[in-house]
Amino acid sequence: ELGIRIPRPLGHGPSRFIPEKETIQVGNEDAMMHTLFADSFATLGRLDNVTLVMVFHPQYLESFLKTQHYLLQMDGPLPLHYRHYIGIMAAARHQCSYLVNLHVNGFLHVGGDPKWLNGLENAPQKLQNLGELNKMLAHRPWLITKEHIEQLLKTEENSWSLAELIHAVVLLTQYHSLASFTFGCGISPEIDCEGGHTFRPPSVSNYCICDITNGYHGVDEIHTSLTGSIPSTESVCEVEALMEKMKQLQECRDEEEASQEEMATRFEREKRESMFVCSSEDEESAPTRDVSRHFEDTSYGYKDFSRHGMHVPTFRVQDYSWEDHGYSLVNRLYPDVGQLLDEKFHIAYNLTYNTMAMHKDVDTSMLRRAIWNYIHCMFGIRYDDYDYGEINQLLDRSFKVYIKTVVCTPEKTTKRMYDSFWRQFEHSEKVHVNLLLVEARMQAELLYALRAITRYMT
User: Cross-referenced Gene3D superfamilies, in alphabetical order (predicted)?
Assistant: First the structure.
Protein backbone atom coordinates (compact mmCIF):
# COMPACT_ATOMS: atom_id res chain seq x y z
CA GLU A 1 0.00 0.00 0.00
CA LEU A 2 2.88 2.34 0.74
CA GLY A 3 4.58 1.40 -2.53
CA ILE A 4 7.53 -0.21 -0.73
CA ARG A 5 9.12 -3.04 -2.70
CA ILE A 6 9.44 -6.06 -0.44
CA PRO A 7 12.22 -8.56 -1.21
CA ARG A 8 11.12 -12.17 -1.52
CA PRO A 9 13.55 -15.10 -1.53
CA LEU A 10 14.21 -16.45 -5.02
CA GLY A 11 15.16 -19.95 -3.90
CA HIS A 12 13.92 -22.36 -1.27
CA GLY A 13 16.46 -23.33 1.35
CA PRO A 14 20.25 -23.05 1.34
CA SER A 15 20.87 -25.19 -1.78
CA ARG A 16 19.43 -25.36 -5.29
CA PHE A 17 20.33 -29.06 -5.47
CA ILE A 18 18.97 -30.29 -2.13
CA PRO A 19 15.24 -29.96 -1.37
CA GLU A 20 14.72 -27.63 1.59
CA LYS A 21 12.87 -30.26 3.60
CA GLU A 22 15.95 -32.49 3.49
CA THR A 23 18.33 -29.90 4.98
CA ILE A 24 18.80 -29.30 8.70
CA GLN A 25 16.16 -26.76 9.72
CA VAL A 26 17.31 -23.95 12.02
CA GLY A 27 15.53 -24.52 15.31
CA ASN A 28 15.65 -28.31 14.95
CA GLU A 29 19.41 -28.62 15.37
CA ASP A 30 21.07 -30.48 18.25
CA ALA A 31 23.26 -28.80 20.90
CA MET A 32 26.51 -29.28 18.98
CA MET A 33 25.03 -27.86 15.77
CA HIS A 34 23.58 -24.95 17.72
CA THR A 35 27.04 -24.04 19.03
CA LEU A 36 28.43 -24.23 15.48
CA PHE A 37 25.66 -21.97 14.18
CA ALA A 38 26.53 -19.46 16.91
CA ASP A 39 30.24 -19.64 16.00
CA SER A 40 29.50 -19.12 12.33
CA PHE A 41 27.25 -16.18 13.15
CA ALA A 42 29.96 -14.64 15.33
CA THR A 43 32.59 -14.98 12.57
CA LEU A 44 30.55 -13.74 9.61
CA GLY A 45 27.81 -11.72 11.28
CA ARG A 46 25.27 -14.01 9.63
CA LEU A 47 24.30 -17.66 9.42
CA ASP A 48 25.31 -18.30 5.82
CA ASN A 49 24.06 -21.02 3.49
CA VAL A 50 27.47 -22.72 3.27
CA THR A 51 27.21 -23.41 7.02
CA LEU A 52 23.62 -24.65 6.68
CA VAL A 53 24.73 -27.26 4.12
CA MET A 54 28.05 -28.17 5.76
CA VAL A 55 26.28 -28.86 9.05
CA PHE A 56 25.33 -32.30 7.65
CA HIS A 57 28.86 -33.06 8.93
CA PRO A 58 29.27 -31.16 12.22
CA GLN A 59 32.75 -32.49 12.97
CA TYR A 60 34.06 -31.13 9.66
CA LEU A 61 32.14 -27.85 10.00
CA GLU A 62 33.72 -27.23 13.40
CA SER A 63 37.21 -27.63 11.93
CA PHE A 64 36.33 -25.49 8.90
CA LEU A 65 34.97 -22.62 11.03
CA LYS A 66 38.02 -22.68 13.27
CA THR A 67 40.34 -22.41 10.25
CA GLN A 68 38.22 -19.70 8.62
CA HIS A 69 38.16 -17.65 11.83
CA TYR A 70 41.92 -17.96 12.27
CA LEU A 71 42.71 -17.01 8.65
CA LEU A 72 40.40 -14.00 8.57
CA GLN A 73 40.38 -12.60 12.10
CA MET A 74 43.22 -13.76 14.33
CA ASP A 75 46.76 -12.39 14.49
CA GLY A 76 48.64 -13.10 11.30
CA PRO A 77 51.13 -11.61 8.84
CA LEU A 78 48.50 -9.85 6.66
CA PRO A 79 46.24 -6.90 7.59
CA LEU A 80 42.54 -7.77 7.81
CA HIS A 81 41.42 -5.89 4.68
CA TYR A 82 44.11 -7.65 2.61
CA ARG A 83 42.74 -11.02 3.75
CA HIS A 84 39.22 -10.27 2.50
CA TYR A 85 40.56 -8.77 -0.71
CA ILE A 86 42.59 -11.94 -1.41
CA GLY A 87 39.38 -13.93 -0.75
CA ILE A 88 37.64 -11.77 -3.40
CA MET A 89 40.50 -12.31 -5.90
CA ALA A 90 40.43 -16.08 -5.36
CA ALA A 91 36.63 -16.51 -5.56
CA ALA A 92 36.46 -14.26 -8.64
CA ARG A 93 38.75 -16.61 -10.59
CA HIS A 94 35.85 -19.09 -10.60
CA GLN A 95 33.17 -16.42 -11.10
CA CYS A 96 31.83 -17.26 -7.65
CA SER A 97 29.78 -14.13 -7.03
CA TYR A 98 28.38 -15.71 -3.84
CA LEU A 99 31.81 -15.68 -2.13
CA VAL A 100 32.88 -12.42 -3.79
CA ASN A 101 29.84 -10.65 -2.30
CA LEU A 102 30.49 -12.16 1.12
CA HIS A 103 34.06 -10.83 1.16
CA VAL A 104 33.19 -7.48 -0.37
CA ASN A 105 31.03 -7.00 2.74
CA GLY A 106 33.84 -8.27 4.99
CA PHE A 107 36.37 -6.01 3.24
CA LEU A 108 34.25 -2.87 3.74
CA HIS A 109 33.41 -3.89 7.31
CA VAL A 110 37.09 -3.92 8.34
CA GLY A 111 37.71 -0.53 6.73
CA GLY A 112 38.89 -1.53 3.24
CA ASP A 113 39.06 1.21 0.60
CA PRO A 114 35.94 0.97 -1.64
CA LYS A 115 38.03 2.17 -4.62
CA TRP A 116 39.87 -1.16 -4.69
CA LEU A 117 36.57 -2.84 -5.50
CA ASN A 118 36.39 -1.06 -8.86
CA GLY A 119 38.96 -3.48 -10.20
CA LEU A 120 42.29 -5.10 -9.44
CA GLU A 121 44.18 -2.22 -11.11
CA ASN A 122 42.90 0.05 -8.28
CA ALA A 123 44.39 -2.14 -5.54
CA PRO A 124 47.99 -1.66 -4.31
CA GLN A 125 50.71 -3.00 -6.62
CA LYS A 126 51.61 -5.58 -3.99
CA LEU A 127 48.18 -7.24 -4.35
CA GLN A 128 48.23 -6.86 -8.13
CA ASN A 129 51.50 -8.81 -8.15
CA LEU A 130 49.62 -11.74 -6.58
CA GLY A 131 47.39 -12.02 -9.67
CA GLU A 132 49.71 -14.39 -11.54
CA LEU A 133 50.00 -16.81 -8.61
CA ASN A 134 46.23 -16.66 -8.06
CA LYS A 135 45.62 -17.57 -11.71
CA MET A 136 48.05 -20.48 -11.79
CA LEU A 137 46.99 -21.92 -8.43
CA ALA A 138 43.33 -21.85 -9.49
CA HIS A 139 43.76 -23.40 -12.91
CA ARG A 140 47.21 -24.95 -13.52
CA PRO A 141 49.15 -25.22 -10.24
CA TRP A 142 51.69 -27.62 -11.77
CA LEU A 143 53.22 -24.67 -13.67
CA ILE A 144 54.31 -22.83 -10.50
CA THR A 145 58.10 -22.58 -10.18
CA LYS A 146 60.51 -21.10 -7.68
CA GLU A 147 60.96 -18.18 -10.13
CA HIS A 148 57.32 -17.15 -9.55
CA ILE A 149 58.00 -17.14 -5.81
CA GLU A 150 61.22 -15.18 -6.26
CA GLN A 151 59.39 -12.48 -8.23
CA LEU A 152 56.95 -11.90 -5.37
CA LEU A 153 59.60 -11.88 -2.64
CA LYS A 154 62.12 -9.70 -4.44
CA THR A 155 60.14 -6.85 -6.03
CA GLU A 156 61.71 -4.01 -4.04
CA GLU A 157 59.13 -1.77 -2.34
CA ASN A 158 56.15 -4.04 -3.12
CA SER A 159 57.78 -7.26 -2.00
CA TRP A 160 56.09 -9.91 0.09
CA SER A 161 57.70 -11.47 3.14
CA LEU A 162 57.75 -15.28 3.32
CA ALA A 163 55.21 -15.28 6.16
CA GLU A 164 52.85 -12.96 4.25
CA LEU A 165 53.16 -15.13 1.16
CA ILE A 166 52.28 -18.30 3.09
CA HIS A 167 49.21 -16.53 4.54
CA ALA A 168 48.21 -15.39 1.03
CA VAL A 169 48.71 -18.86 -0.50
CA VAL A 170 46.59 -20.50 2.19
CA LEU A 171 43.82 -17.91 1.62
CA LEU A 172 43.92 -18.34 -2.16
CA THR A 173 43.72 -22.15 -1.97
CA GLN A 174 41.02 -21.97 0.73
CA TYR A 175 38.78 -19.80 -1.47
CA HIS A 176 39.42 -21.63 -4.73
CA SER A 177 38.31 -24.83 -3.02
CA LEU A 178 35.41 -23.15 -1.23
CA ALA A 179 34.20 -21.99 -4.66
CA SER A 180 34.21 -25.69 -5.62
CA PHE A 181 32.03 -26.46 -2.58
CA THR A 182 29.67 -23.56 -3.32
CA PHE A 183 29.03 -24.64 -6.91
CA GLY A 184 29.23 -28.39 -6.17
CA CYS A 185 26.45 -28.18 -3.59
CA GLY A 186 24.41 -25.57 -5.51
CA ILE A 187 24.59 -23.04 -2.65
CA SER A 188 21.91 -20.34 -3.06
CA PRO A 189 22.63 -16.69 -2.25
CA GLU A 190 21.01 -15.44 0.98
CA ILE A 191 17.92 -13.24 0.60
CA ASP A 192 19.86 -9.98 1.15
CA CYS A 193 22.56 -10.83 -1.41
CA GLU A 194 22.60 -10.21 -5.12
CA GLY A 195 20.69 -12.98 -6.88
CA GLY A 196 19.01 -14.02 -3.62
CA HIS A 197 15.76 -12.11 -3.94
CA THR A 198 13.18 -10.73 -6.27
CA PHE A 199 10.59 -8.02 -5.72
CA ARG A 200 7.00 -9.03 -6.24
CA PRO A 201 3.65 -8.23 -4.72
CA PRO A 202 2.46 -10.69 -2.07
CA SER A 203 0.01 -13.26 -3.39
CA VAL A 204 -2.95 -14.92 -1.73
CA SER A 205 -1.56 -18.38 -2.28
CA ASN A 206 2.13 -19.25 -2.13
CA TYR A 207 2.22 -19.47 -5.89
CA CYS A 208 1.11 -16.71 -8.19
CA ILE A 209 1.51 -15.67 -11.81
CA CYS A 210 4.32 -13.27 -10.85
CA ASP A 211 6.42 -16.29 -9.79
CA ILE A 212 6.56 -17.35 -13.40
CA THR A 213 7.68 -13.93 -14.58
CA ASN A 214 10.41 -14.06 -11.95
CA GLY A 215 11.73 -17.34 -13.25
CA TYR A 216 10.49 -19.57 -10.43
CA HIS A 217 8.20 -22.27 -11.80
CA GLY A 218 7.86 -24.48 -8.76
CA VAL A 219 8.64 -27.41 -11.03
CA ASP A 220 11.82 -28.43 -9.21
CA GLU A 221 9.91 -29.06 -6.01
CA ILE A 222 7.32 -31.24 -7.72
CA HIS A 223 9.97 -33.10 -9.70
CA THR A 224 12.19 -33.86 -6.72
CA SER A 225 9.31 -35.03 -4.58
CA LEU A 226 8.32 -37.50 -7.30
CA THR A 227 11.78 -38.81 -8.12
CA GLY A 228 13.15 -38.59 -4.61
CA SER A 229 10.60 -40.85 -3.00
CA ILE A 230 10.67 -43.82 -5.38
CA PRO A 231 14.04 -45.58 -5.53
CA SER A 232 14.44 -46.84 -9.10
CA THR A 233 15.65 -50.44 -9.34
CA GLU A 234 18.49 -49.26 -11.57
CA SER A 235 19.93 -46.95 -8.92
CA VAL A 236 19.49 -49.56 -6.17
CA CYS A 237 21.50 -51.97 -8.35
CA GLU A 238 24.11 -49.23 -8.71
CA VAL A 239 24.79 -49.29 -4.94
CA GLU A 240 24.88 -53.10 -4.85
CA ALA A 241 27.28 -53.21 -7.81
CA LEU A 242 29.61 -50.66 -6.18
CA MET A 243 29.71 -52.65 -2.93
CA GLU A 244 30.39 -55.85 -4.87
CA LYS A 245 33.33 -54.19 -6.67
CA MET A 246 34.76 -53.00 -3.35
CA LYS A 247 34.57 -56.54 -2.03
CA GLN A 248 36.28 -58.00 -5.12
CA LEU A 249 39.06 -55.39 -5.04
CA GLN A 250 39.71 -56.16 -1.40
CA GLU A 251 40.03 -59.86 -2.23
CA CYS A 252 42.42 -59.14 -5.14
CA ARG A 253 44.50 -56.93 -2.85
CA ASP A 254 44.83 -59.77 -0.37
CA GLU A 255 45.82 -62.26 -3.07
CA GLU A 256 48.36 -60.42 -5.19
CA GLU A 257 50.21 -57.14 -5.28
CA ALA A 258 51.06 -55.39 -8.56
CA SER A 259 54.71 -54.58 -9.29
CA GLN A 260 56.03 -51.00 -9.02
CA GLU A 261 56.29 -50.77 -12.84
CA GLU A 262 52.69 -51.92 -13.23
CA MET A 263 51.55 -49.38 -10.59
CA ALA A 264 53.37 -46.57 -12.44
CA THR A 265 51.80 -47.63 -15.75
CA ARG A 266 48.31 -47.65 -14.20
CA PHE A 267 48.88 -44.14 -12.82
CA GLU A 268 49.94 -42.81 -16.25
CA ARG A 269 46.93 -44.50 -17.86
CA GLU A 270 44.52 -42.97 -15.34
CA LYS A 271 46.19 -39.55 -15.71
CA ARG A 272 45.80 -39.77 -19.50
CA GLU A 273 42.20 -40.93 -19.26
CA SER A 274 41.31 -38.12 -16.88
CA MET A 275 42.07 -35.71 -19.74
CA PHE A 276 39.25 -37.20 -21.79
CA VAL A 277 36.71 -36.78 -19.04
CA CYS A 278 35.14 -33.45 -19.78
CA SER A 279 32.15 -31.57 -18.58
CA SER A 280 29.09 -32.63 -20.53
CA GLU A 281 27.64 -29.16 -20.22
CA ASP A 282 29.22 -27.05 -22.90
CA GLU A 283 27.36 -23.85 -22.33
CA GLU A 284 29.49 -21.15 -20.78
CA SER A 285 28.19 -19.97 -17.43
CA ALA A 286 28.10 -16.21 -17.40
CA PRO A 287 29.07 -14.54 -14.11
CA THR A 288 25.94 -13.30 -12.34
CA ARG A 289 27.76 -10.20 -11.13
CA ASP A 290 30.67 -8.59 -12.85
CA VAL A 291 33.32 -10.38 -10.86
CA SER A 292 35.88 -10.43 -13.66
CA ARG A 293 37.17 -7.00 -12.67
CA HIS A 294 38.80 -8.58 -9.61
CA PHE A 295 41.35 -10.51 -11.67
CA GLU A 296 43.43 -10.21 -14.84
CA ASP A 297 43.63 -12.44 -17.89
CA THR A 298 40.00 -13.60 -17.95
CA SER A 299 40.63 -16.05 -20.78
CA TYR A 300 43.07 -18.11 -18.67
CA GLY A 301 41.39 -21.29 -17.42
CA TYR A 302 41.91 -24.94 -16.64
CA LYS A 303 43.87 -26.95 -19.21
CA ASP A 304 44.91 -30.59 -18.79
CA PHE A 305 48.63 -30.66 -18.08
CA SER A 306 49.69 -33.03 -20.87
CA ARG A 307 47.73 -31.40 -23.69
CA HIS A 308 49.52 -30.00 -26.75
CA GLY A 309 52.81 -31.75 -26.19
CA MET A 310 53.40 -30.11 -22.80
CA HIS A 311 54.92 -32.69 -20.56
CA VAL A 312 54.65 -32.00 -16.86
CA PRO A 313 56.76 -34.32 -14.71
CA THR A 314 54.77 -36.41 -12.24
CA PHE A 315 54.73 -34.97 -8.72
CA ARG A 316 55.67 -37.90 -6.49
CA VAL A 317 54.24 -37.63 -2.98
CA GLN A 318 57.24 -39.63 -1.76
CA ASP A 319 59.47 -36.65 -2.71
CA TYR A 320 57.28 -33.87 -1.30
CA SER A 321 54.23 -34.56 0.85
CA TRP A 322 51.96 -32.51 3.06
CA GLU A 323 52.74 -34.64 6.13
CA ASP A 324 56.53 -34.59 5.82
CA HIS A 325 57.22 -31.22 4.20
CA GLY A 326 54.26 -28.86 3.64
CA TYR A 327 52.85 -29.04 7.15
CA SER A 328 56.07 -28.01 8.91
CA LEU A 329 56.80 -25.21 6.42
CA VAL A 330 53.35 -23.64 6.95
CA ASN A 331 53.54 -24.07 10.71
CA ARG A 332 56.97 -22.50 10.89
CA LEU A 333 56.04 -19.38 8.92
CA TYR A 334 52.43 -18.97 10.04
CA PRO A 335 52.13 -20.71 13.44
CA ASP A 336 49.07 -22.90 14.14
CA VAL A 337 47.75 -22.77 10.57
CA GLY A 338 49.56 -25.98 9.60
CA GLN A 339 47.87 -27.67 12.54
CA LEU A 340 44.41 -26.36 11.58
CA LEU A 341 44.77 -27.38 7.93
CA ASP A 342 46.11 -30.78 8.88
CA GLU A 343 43.10 -31.41 11.10
CA LYS A 344 40.71 -30.30 8.33
CA PHE A 345 42.36 -32.58 5.72
CA HIS A 346 42.36 -35.43 8.19
CA ILE A 347 38.69 -35.09 9.12
CA ALA A 348 37.52 -34.88 5.49
CA TYR A 349 39.61 -37.89 4.45
CA ASN A 350 38.68 -40.11 7.41
CA LEU A 351 35.09 -39.01 7.93
CA THR A 352 32.74 -41.98 7.82
CA TYR A 353 29.46 -43.14 9.31
CA ASN A 354 30.03 -46.64 7.86
CA THR A 355 26.97 -46.32 5.65
CA MET A 356 26.39 -46.43 1.91
CA ALA A 357 22.93 -45.37 0.82
CA MET A 358 20.65 -47.84 2.60
CA HIS A 359 23.47 -50.13 3.83
CA LYS A 360 25.03 -49.98 7.29
CA ASP A 361 28.35 -51.24 8.71
CA VAL A 362 30.23 -50.66 5.44
CA ASP A 363 33.95 -49.88 5.36
CA THR A 364 34.10 -47.00 2.86
CA SER A 365 37.83 -46.27 3.17
CA MET A 366 38.61 -47.77 -0.26
CA LEU A 367 36.05 -45.52 -1.94
CA ARG A 368 37.20 -42.37 -0.12
CA ARG A 369 40.80 -43.07 -1.06
CA ALA A 370 39.86 -43.62 -4.73
CA ILE A 371 38.10 -40.23 -4.84
CA TRP A 372 40.99 -38.40 -3.13
CA ASN A 373 43.67 -40.05 -5.28
CA TYR A 374 41.69 -39.48 -8.49
CA ILE A 375 41.67 -35.73 -7.79
CA HIS A 376 45.40 -35.73 -7.05
CA CYS A 377 45.94 -37.80 -10.22
CA MET A 378 44.16 -35.09 -12.27
CA PHE A 379 46.75 -32.69 -10.84
CA GLY A 380 49.62 -35.03 -11.78
CA ILE A 381 50.28 -36.12 -8.18
CA ARG A 382 51.15 -39.79 -7.67
CA TYR A 383 51.21 -42.10 -4.62
CA ASP A 384 53.69 -44.95 -5.19
CA ASP A 385 51.78 -47.32 -2.95
CA TYR A 386 48.36 -46.92 -4.60
CA ASP A 387 46.94 -49.10 -7.34
CA TYR A 388 45.30 -46.64 -9.77
CA GLY A 389 43.47 -49.52 -11.43
CA GLU A 390 40.97 -49.28 -8.53
CA ILE A 391 39.76 -45.85 -9.65
CA ASN A 392 38.14 -47.12 -12.85
CA GLN A 393 36.48 -49.93 -10.93
CA LEU A 394 34.94 -47.64 -8.31
CA LEU A 395 34.18 -44.34 -10.04
CA ASP A 396 31.84 -44.47 -13.00
CA ARG A 397 31.87 -41.96 -15.82
CA SER A 398 29.07 -39.66 -14.61
CA PHE A 399 30.77 -39.46 -11.20
CA LYS A 400 34.13 -38.65 -12.82
CA VAL A 401 32.50 -35.88 -14.88
CA TYR A 402 31.03 -34.42 -11.69
CA ILE A 403 34.37 -34.64 -9.82
CA LYS A 404 36.39 -33.08 -12.61
CA THR A 405 33.87 -30.28 -13.13
CA VAL A 406 33.61 -29.39 -9.43
CA VAL A 407 37.38 -29.48 -8.94
CA CYS A 408 38.61 -27.87 -12.19
CA THR A 409 35.77 -25.70 -13.54
CA PRO A 410 33.28 -25.49 -10.66
CA GLU A 411 31.32 -22.64 -12.28
CA LYS A 412 30.07 -25.17 -14.89
CA THR A 413 28.50 -27.56 -12.33
CA THR A 414 24.80 -28.17 -12.97
CA LYS A 415 21.99 -29.78 -11.01
CA ARG A 416 21.83 -32.48 -13.68
CA MET A 417 25.43 -33.50 -12.94
CA TYR A 418 24.72 -33.53 -9.20
CA ASP A 419 21.61 -35.66 -9.70
CA SER A 420 23.23 -38.09 -12.14
CA PHE A 421 25.84 -39.65 -9.85
CA TRP A 422 25.10 -41.99 -6.93
CA ARG A 423 21.36 -41.60 -7.41
CA GLN A 424 20.38 -43.71 -4.43
CA PHE A 425 22.69 -42.04 -1.94
CA GLU A 426 21.61 -39.51 0.70
CA HIS A 427 22.23 -35.80 0.12
CA SER A 428 24.47 -35.83 3.19
CA GLU A 429 26.65 -38.43 1.42
CA LYS A 430 26.90 -36.21 -1.66
CA VAL A 431 27.87 -33.26 0.54
CA HIS A 432 30.53 -35.54 2.06
CA VAL A 433 31.85 -36.21 -1.47
CA ASN A 434 32.11 -32.44 -1.92
CA LEU A 435 34.13 -32.12 1.29
CA LEU A 436 36.58 -34.70 -0.08
CA LEU A 437 36.80 -32.80 -3.38
CA VAL A 438 37.36 -29.49 -1.60
CA GLU A 439 40.14 -30.72 0.68
CA ALA A 440 41.91 -32.87 -1.94
CA ARG A 441 41.90 -29.90 -4.31
CA MET A 442 43.18 -27.52 -1.64
CA GLN A 443 45.97 -29.90 -0.67
CA ALA A 444 47.02 -30.41 -4.31
CA GLU A 445 47.25 -26.64 -4.89
CA LEU A 446 49.15 -26.17 -1.63
CA LEU A 447 51.63 -28.93 -2.46
CA TYR A 448 52.66 -27.24 -5.72
CA ALA A 449 52.93 -23.78 -4.11
CA LEU A 450 54.80 -25.00 -1.01
CA ARG A 451 57.18 -27.12 -3.06
CA ALA A 452 58.07 -24.01 -5.12
CA ILE A 453 58.59 -21.98 -1.92
CA THR A 454 60.80 -24.74 -0.47
CA ARG A 455 62.88 -24.81 -3.67
CA TYR A 456 63.25 -21.03 -3.52
CA MET A 457 64.38 -21.22 0.12
CA THR A 458 66.95 -23.96 -0.53
Answer: AhpD-like
Residues near 441 by beta carbon (within 8 Å), at least 6 away in sequence? 176, 177, 180, 375, 407
pLDDT given at position 186: 95
Select from 161, 194, 227 the last residue of a domain.
194
Return the number of other C-beta atoms located less than 10 Å from residue 113's C-beta: 14
Instruction: Report how far residue 98's alpha carbon sits from residue 107's, in angstroms, rounded to the nearest whole number.
Output: 14
List, in sequence order, every beta strand (DSSP E) within 115-271. Answer: 197-199
Per residue in 77-99, pLDDT (tens digit) is: 999 999 999 999 999 999 999 99
pLDDT of residue 150: 95
pLDDT at 207 over 60: no
Q: List the catalytic residue out of 96, 185, 193, 408.
A: 96
Query: Comparing 4-13, 66-75, 353-362, which segment has the lowest mean pLDDT?
Result: 4-13
Number of domains making up the chain: 2
For residue 11, is it within any domain? no
Task: Provide mean pLDDT across the span 338-342.
Answer: 97
CA distance 161 to 79: 13
Q: Do 186 and 317 lie in a common domain?
A: no
Residue 225 in domain: no
Give the pLDDT mean for 105-118: 94
- Do 415 and 272 share a structural domain? yes
- Residue 350's pLDDT is 96
Q: Which of 194, 226, 251 is the last residue of a domain?
A: 194
Burial group, residue 144, by CB count within 10 angstroms (0-12, 13-18, 19+): buried
The residue ranking higher by pLDDT, 443 or 290, is 443
- Burial letters for 235-263: b for 16+ Cβ neighbours within 10 Å, e otherwise? eeebbeebbeebeebeeeeeeeeeeeeeb
Q: Quick one: what percent of the chain has pLDDT higher than 90?
A: 59
Whether residue 96 lies in the annotated active site: yes
Can you tell me the distance from the alpha carbon of 89 to that of 112, in angstroms, rounded to the nearest whole number? 14
Whether residue 142 contacts residue 448, with contact meaning beta carbons closer than 8 Å, is answered with yes
Is 447 inside a domain boundary? yes
Q: Does 150 lie in the same domain as 42?
A: yes
- Identify the CATH number of the domain in which residue 154 sits: 1.20.1290.10
Average pLDDT over residues 313-325: 91
Residues 276 and 414 in one domain: yes
On whether residue 2 sits in a domain, the answer given is: no
Closest by Cα among 58, 46, 60, 62 to 14: 46
